[in-house]
Amino acid sequence: MHPLHDPSGLEALSQEIKSLALSLGFHQVGITSTDPLLDDGEHLKRWLSEGHAADMAYLHKSPEFRSDPKRRFPEAKSVICLALNYHQPEPDPPQTHQTGARKGKVARYAWGEDYHHIIEEKLCALIQEITARGGKCWKGYVDHGPLLERAFAQRAGLGFVGKNTNLITDDYGSWVFLAEVVTDLKLIADLPATGQCGTCRRCLDACPTGALPEAYRLDARKCISYLTIENKGPIPEDLVPNLEEWIFGCDICQTVCPFNNQAIPTDVPGLSYRKGAGARLSIDEIEAIPDNATFKARFKRSPLLRAKRTGLARNAAALQPTQEMKS
Ligand code: B12
Ligand code: SF4
Ligand code: SF4
């Protein structure tokens, strides 16, 4: 941009930061202000008060920070929102029944290496570049930070929040991870995304456990993703028959989504199913893992470590009756 039209240089700096993010391998980048997300903050409060967070206690800690980053970082002015595509086609769909081997399905986000490692490296590099241009950055966030990542991404124009509560982008559907950098630079904000689900309700009808009781509302107590990853207790008996072979996570409300039909495959090598647990896991293998050290070595750098050996063994045990009934 010509300096006469951009006397403060902020338009040019915003564009430069976006180009840097793309050159580091992020697939999308958008900018929004640190103004509070008033409606989303209210939705979050209601979601927590109705028990929909199950026992994820960390979500109850200072929920107001999640919609209002300035409460934590008063000098913060902009949130740089980033997306990384993780889509790849299913490698071996007929394997389970063809070979007769007992297998459980792994959610697509967890087929390769843990995305936290991959994204954190890129965030560090981006923060270095911004700091070199005079911007102060607080920690880069991916997943664990106190931010409503999908709501900020929507306001930064990356995509819209669908009825299954996922952020849906134009090019990659909802198969994207989200990350953010919070900075004191007053960058030029993008326009919010305006897409919508329209009359579609496929995800609400397809969820096998009733974890989407209404549009835009997920009840983690019933969600297979929660029950097989975050949950520390047993899987409720009435939901066991509805696990639909998922041993880690669940993708049903995403695979039925029409916006996910044409998603472009990822170009991030570490996310390939060849670099990690893959799309299906042998139940016999999981049951035979003798101790934590073997489990950690088997799933080194994989998101499956999150469930721990006891969690994964619990999931494998829960799948057995369903699979035996089917065979
Ligand atoms: C806790 C958590 C979970 C929980 C709860 C999920 C949930 N929907 O909240 C569990 C363990 C179940 C989970 C599952 C999954 N997760 Co998760 N999870 C998170 C985490 C850490 C916090 C989410 C949160 O704050 N929830 C609180 C609720 C209130 O927020 P919300 O559901 O987004 O609801 C918003 C809107 O729906 C809206 N809203 C609510 N009510 C209403 C009502 C109306 C009428 C309207 C209009 C709007 C509205 O306001 C809310 C606030 O913005 C985020 C990372 C982060 N820090 O944001 C990752 C994150 C959301 N998860 C992610 C992923 C990949 C998954 C899974 C796909 C993994 C899998 N395959 O198993 C599933 C998807 C399940 C699903 N349909 O959401 C990605 C999502 C990427 C994307 N494209 O959206 C994130 C952003 C992590 C990341 N950094 O990439 N997750
Ligand atoms: S991830 Fe699976 S269980 Fe959870 S809401 Fe989506 S379809 Fe339902
Ligand atoms: S399946 Fe339909 S209702 Fe659900 S998120 Fe996709 S477009 Fe929206």
Instruction: Give the proportion of residues in helices.
Output: 25-40%
Intertermini distance: 65 Å
Percentage beta strand = 5-15%
Total helical segments: 12
Q: Biggest sheet: strands, sense, closure? A: 4 strands, antiparallel
Ligand names: cobalamin, iron/sulfur cluster
User: What is the helix/strand order?
Assistant: HEHHEHEHEHEEEHHEHEHHH
User: Could you say which structural class the secondary elements and strand pairing correspond to?
Assistant: alpha+beta
Number of domains: 2
Q: Major sheet: order of its strands?
A: 1-2-7-4
Oligomer: single chain
Dominant shape = globular
On the 0-100 scale, what is the average pLDDT? 94
Radius of gyration: 21 Å
* Poorly predicted sequence stretches spanning 5 or more consecutive residues: 322-327
Give the strand tally.
9
Summarize the structure in words.
The chain has helices spanning 10-23, 38-49, 63-67, 95-99, 115-132, 149-155, 202-206, 224-230, 252-255, 283-288, 292-298, 308-326; strands at residues 28-33, 78-85, 103-106, 137-141, 160-161, 167-168, 176-183, 246-248, 280-282. With 327 residues, it is α+β, with helices and mostly antiparallel strands. The protein has two domains: 3-92 and 113-183, no CATH class; 202-326, no CATH class. Strands 1-2-7-4 form a four-stranded antiparallel β-sheet, with helices on both faces. Mean pLDDT is 94; it is low at 322-327.
